[in-house]
Amino acid sequence: xxxxxxxxxxxxxxxxxxxxxxxxxxxxxxxxxxxxxxxxxxxxxxxxxxxxxxxxxxxxxxxxxxxxxxxxxxxxxxxxxxxxxxxxxxxxxxxxxxxxxxxxxxxxxxxxxxxxxxxxxxxxxxxxxxxxxxxxxxxxxxxxxxxxxxxxxxxxxxxxxxxxxxxxxxxxxxxxxxxxxxxxxxxxxxxxxxxxxxxxxxxxxxxxxxxxxxxxxxxxxxxxxxxxxxxxxxxxxxxxxxxxxxxxxxxxxxxxxxxxxxxxxxxxxxxxxxxxxxxxxxxxxxxxxxxxxxxxxxxxxxxxxxxxxxxxxxxxxxxxxxxxxxxxxxxxxxxxxxxxxxxxxxxxxxxxxxxxxxxxxxxxxxxxxxxxxxxxxxxxxxxxxxxxxxxxxxxxxxxxxxxxxxxxxxxxxxxxxxxxxxxxxxxxxxxxxxxxxxxxxxxxxxxxxxxxxxxxxxxxxxxxxxxxxxxxxxxxxxx
Length: 479
Prior knowledge:
Blueprint: H1 3-6, E1 14-16, E2 25-27, E3 37-40, H2 53-58, E4 63-66, E5 76-78, H3 82-93, E6 102-107, H4 112-125, E7 130-134, E8 137-140, E9 143-145, H5 154-166, E10 171-175, H6 178-182, E11 193-196, H7 204-207, H8 210-218, E12 229-232, H9 236-244, E13 249-253, E14 260-268, E15 271-278, E16 281-287, H10 292-307, H11 312-320, E17 330-335, E18 338-343, H12 348-359, E19 366-370, H13 379-391, E20 394-397, H14 407-419, E21 425-427, H15 431-440, E22 447-451, E23 458-461, E24 464-467, H16 470-478
Parallel strand pairs: 2-3, 3-4, 4-5, 6-10, 6-11, 7-10, 11-12, 12-13, 13-14, 18-22, 19-20, 19-22, 20-21
Antiparallel strand pairs: 1-5, 7-8, 8-9, 14-15, 15-16, 17-18, 23-24
């Protein structure tokens, strides 16, 4: 497609087409540019793409989209928001494949993956061809791509949409992060249904305060992006947003009046039983998932499935099937009558939910092993320590993804929180050694939670991702 065709119908305030080259690819990373590419000079946290235009041209870029006129002699188009321009061009380059798909968005601090994967699973179970994009990767038509970001960049998204259309996919369920909304990765997309699960502390290293974080989430629930919304009335932010919403919506919850709700909730090591009222259709439910928050996640998925045309009876049947999301409250082993669970809980609210859920089924001691990521929201470290100190009988503080920080410094910040609530803890810097120790101290009836990494298959240390999985390491030890 020619450069002039790609940049029409968008508010580029200045263009210089030059020879109007044929564009054969798109890139925003000068290191991966190939001959015939259009290069997007986007601005990152510590990087300005304009500094890499020359390198991109040397590698074969034939045109550039930037914020300011390039110093190099190259066809260009200028815009105040290169990321929005990139999303627009990517959609056009891939023949607007997104318009041939029914898109579903799930956002919130916690629960995105579980809700998205549940909807994806239920749609396929009901004969629909569905794909999912999120934290655990991209799945569709027997294909799998490892996760890069919760919500990938717009170039990746539209390339995947095009391939999904080729593979006859009808529905795409997406986890939409606050970063994706802030950085316009989903610009130009329209979601048939969007779900807001909750809002609690996370990513304050990027958003600085909860107000800006909430503002990014709220952006999704406007007519620009969403045709129909689903809100959690048990979350203060979601409840307030539902009352202000100008788009059609439904609500779900366990503790406040809602369109979908649950009563008579009972927990056991085998899962959860409850009675679901889904728009006045009542079903007795039994699921292998554990915890009140997972009942809430099921209600969210149920409303979305109804809105997508799945009959209520089929919705209930799908939610009762033996389906689990890897790394989300996943029971990975039994050791001498004790149970071991892996969960992605990496926020204060997420850790509180996980420990509260497990406490309800623990006959012996509840042991929690976790750490906090480096170069991320530092404020939550002591808070998560306090939560584990208060809710667990014993805490093992260890490393998560320290990235470029000193693991012992992170552990020390978590430890300060634990000590406010309990003296029953140890610190073990090496996560493998921490897990080995945890397994050794288990007794019959105990429950061990390995929190923070979930289904991640790496540990990031000093910029290097080393192969590692909590689940696989437990299996290795027990073998």
